[in-house]
Amino acid sequence: MIKKRTLTYPCYTGQEKRRVYIYLPRGYDSQPSRRYPVLYMFDGQNVFFDDNATYGKSWGVGRYLNYTKTPLIVVALECNTHADNGRLSEYSPFYYNPGGEWGGPYEARAEETMQWYIHSLKPYIDKRFRTLTDREHTFIGGSSMGGLMSLYGVLCHNEVFSRAASFSPTMDVDADALVALIEASSPAPDTVIYMDYGMKEFDYEPWSPANFTRVANALMQKGVILSTRLVPNGDHSEASWERQLPFAIPTIMYGI
């Protein structure tokens, strides 16, 4: 069951309406006393339905969770769609001025975004659905810039999120700053991170393999429970990320 709600998001371009998709697991209605862990995901328009997806293909998260009978609530908020790099700004922990095909500059508004997720979206969900509200059962996930945000969220707000699924995280925005952010963080030793990258993505930029290795090593040095995966023939697409769900979801649900 996937419910749709519309919330007002106070983005930097002004108040705007955004759709949030809420997946409720099989048995939710028939087991009224049961509570569930929650996975918050970015780029919500791409998570469940092909008709809503930016490029016409979603992750199919609902189909996977139904098939596997995973006892998990998923909350996915639409991203900023403004043409002035709105999504990149809201999902970036770092100021970036790349020019070229990336455009720019865009401001670092990751912390503003996370504050809204933590202090507005999470209370909204916890009040209306049968969630397990504690840190142990609160997760975060996304791909590309959403993957970067997932790393940021679990490291910089580790008191809220205990586990993260980061698919093809954008590391080339500022790999030095990302490594510095990891080194400055203090995640609890029970923190779980799934992080992958498609082998075809390494063809995009010559420094991507080195950046992935640097980020993984920095995470290992912090003592988190890290699961990394290099995806054979994986690329930067929803279809590729969908195929990684059987690896990512069991990782963040392990022991729950």
Account of the protein in words:
- This protein has 256 residues and is an alpha/beta fold.
- The protein is 32% helix and 21% strand.
- The chain contains eight helices and eight strands.
- The chain has helices spanning 61-68, 86-90, 110-128, 145-156, 175-184, 208-221, 238-242, 245-253, and strands at 2-11, 14-23, 38-41, 73-77, 138-143, 163-167, 192-198, 225-231.
- It has an eight-stranded mixed sheet with strand order 1-2-4-3-5-6-7-8, with helices on both faces.
- Strand 3, helix 1 (61-68) and strand 4 (73-77) form a beta-alpha-beta unit.
- Helix 5 (175-184) packs parallel to helix 6 (208-221).
- The model has no long low-confidence stretch (mean pLDDT 91).
What is this structure's SSE topology?
Blueprint: E1 2-11, E2 14-23, E3 38-41, H1 61-68, E4 73-77, H2 86-90, H3 110-128, E5 138-143, H4 145-156, E6 163-167, H5 175-184, E7 192-198, H6 208-221, E8 225-231, H7 238-242, H8 245-253
Parallel strand pairs: 3-4, 3-5, 5-6, 6-7, 7-8
Antiparallel strand pairs: 1-2, 2-4
Helix pairs in contact: 5-6
Compute the number of strand runs: 8
Strands in their spatial order, largest beta sheet? 1-2-4-3-5-6-7-8
N/C terminus separation: 21 Å
Unreliable stretches (pLDDT < 50, length at least 5) are none
- Beta-strand residue percentage: 15-25%
The SSE order reads EEEHEHHEHEHEHEHH
Number of helices: 8
- How would you sum up the major sheet? 8 strands, mixed
- Tell me roughly what share of residues is in helical segments: 25-40%
Mean pLDDT: 91
Radius of gyration: 17 Å
Shape: globular
What class do helices, strands and sheet pairing give?
alpha/beta
